[in-house]
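Q: I have 769 residues here and want to know how they pack in 3D. Can you give me a structure?
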Amino acid sequence: MLTMMKPLLLFCGILFSSWRPTTSYDPPAKNDNILHQVTQVTQADLQVDPSSPHLPKHVGGQEGEKEELGENIIWEENLTLNDQKGNFWSTRGEHGEMRNKRQTTSNKQERIKRKEVENTNKQEKTKQKKTQRNVNTDTKRVTNERRLKEKNKEEKKKRTRMQQRKKLKKTLQEEMKRNNRIRRIMANKGRTRPNIVFILADDLGYNDVPWHNPDIKAPELLRLARQGVVLENHYVLPLCGPSRAALMTGIYPFRYGKQASSTPLSPTGLNTSFTLLPQRLRQLGYNTHLVGKWHLGYCSWAYTPTERGFDSFYGYYLGSQTYFTRYKKLGPKKGSPFWRDQNQVLDDHNPYRGPHQDPIDSSLKHQHRLKEATKKREEEREWERQPWLTPEHNQQGGYDFRFNHKPVLNTSELYSNELYAARAEELIKSQASRGTGNPLFLMLSLQAVHGPVQVPLKYKRRHRAIKNLHRRTFHGMVSALDEVVSRVVKQLKKSRLYDNTIIVFTTDNGGNIRSGGNNFPLRGSKGGVFEGGTRGVAFIHSPLLPRTGYKYTGMMHVVDWYNTLLHAAHGTPSTGDENRTPLQDDEPQEEDLPTWAKFSSFMGHMGVVNSTMGGEEEDESGKNDSVDLWSAILDNRESPRSSFVYNVRKRPLRGAIRRKNWKLVVGDGGRYDGWVPPSDVAGGVSTRCCSSWHARTPAHNVMLYNLKDDPLETTNVASLRPDVAANLQAQLRSYAFQSRHPHSPQDDPRGHPNLHGGFFSPGWCQPIV
């Protein structure tokens, strides 16, 4: 930079050296030091020294020559001065260059410092901004959180208010409905009787309904149960036939010998001297119809439904059949090598055959024991003289499907639920077409979900997530059952009969773990007296109920439906005098009772026996076993029933009894015992998957359970409470001596379907009066 400026500075020096000021001299500016020094040349400095060696030789002489000489001198002086000035500028330029370098370095350092300061300031500002931003963010976050909390609080208050309003609205609606129901009840009291639809499922277990098991897809049953009254402590008999007999008669089946099962060719039925529930309702003006299963005897026409109080019958007589063909295959006879007991608790044992005998039986008179044993051996010899049904004969069977007395044909490949639903809809339409005449009693006794495990594919596909194939099919059967119930309810509403109808839903016994059913977590299976085989699911649904949506925990037995429904139908409950059966000839009378029985009866009258149980023993002599629970259910009051008999057999004593929270089981309690999860159920009687649940308890075993503290029957407390066990055992023996021997005669070949056109038909036996 300095090198480029040097010629410019030299030119300026020469220019200023030739300049003559004509006026007063003004000092240069402070920044013009160099030019000021150059112009400090006086006139004396410009005078010519003649002795100067620099003058030209020809100087001096003429005036012209002098002027010329003077000009030359001046010029030479200028050159000398310029040289001196050049040296000066050269020296000053070097110093200036150094100074400029220093200045440049200093400027650079200053700039660096300024940049550092600026960077520091920027960083500080950035930090301040960041801090301020964080502060603003925190403030904003806190503000937002506070606003959000306030908003949530307001929304919560709003939701609470809305819920309160909805709850109040729902309460008001329920109160209005309740008042309307009460008005209907009061308006109908003594004038219009309600329609009754009694839906009886077959082998539906405790864990097979949606209000106990959410995996069950039965929305209509769940809706009806939630909008009705669920009977949480409703009990049935261990088998199909005994439960139906108890329902129809209102009497314990052991009193008239129907506490056990019977074969299709056994000439037996329900005593014709009994006045059954449909007969009582018919006397009150009801139109009575049965759709589905009968299973109370058919060998005589006097046993059939149309002769026992039903105006019409559409279904089958026996206990089971296939769902698509209505065909029943005959099995081997009892006692044959191919026969297998289906109910170990209730079958007929010879007490003198095995090593285990009831110790109390030793107190019977010796002559009475010999008489009974001799009679038993004679029956067995007569039985052995009859031909066996071989495995080839097992393939034989017949059809069992009728409309009233006439066999129904051309129903193959149709699922039975479809037929029963269509028939029920037809009956409801017919009832509606008659106007406000006689009320309707429709007993829809469905085949579902009894074995065999069969269902259309469309129902099975709804439960693909279930791995157990038998259980998957069973779930489909429950869904098909639910569809039948839905069709019936829809038809009631469509026919405008729903508002004056009582719908009862129940099962005849617990689930059969060998046919897809399940009772978990309850103990046991169908055929046993544990809770899994006897605690039957049930509910009542009706617009006439003053209160709904709750579980009734009072004790109820299937025999109680007799008087309960009569009360609901504005009838008079039965006292049982017309249905009370006399003691059998072979039963011991009062004087023949052993000493322990007389002592128990005496202590009962003295109030000693019942002191342990708390409460008074019911005197059931001359009374119907059915208890009227209609008012207790409507008002959700304590049940008037405090005890019942699960089932009982004598010689040796076997069965179970319940007294309040105490339950006594004598015997093994059932062939299939235990707490069977849904994944372990089987798909048929021949399946051996359930062998691990086969009970082998001694026949004289005594088990006592407190169902309030131990509803799953896991802990036997008989040794801890021997007083309670003894009391209940004495009561069970008392019932045993009131019982009759199971009426299950040997198969009669006259009833074979081959002799009746391939159908199981009546007309080949004499009825029991």
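Q: Anything worth noting?
A: The chain has a mean pLDDT of 78. The chain is about 35% helix and 10% strand.
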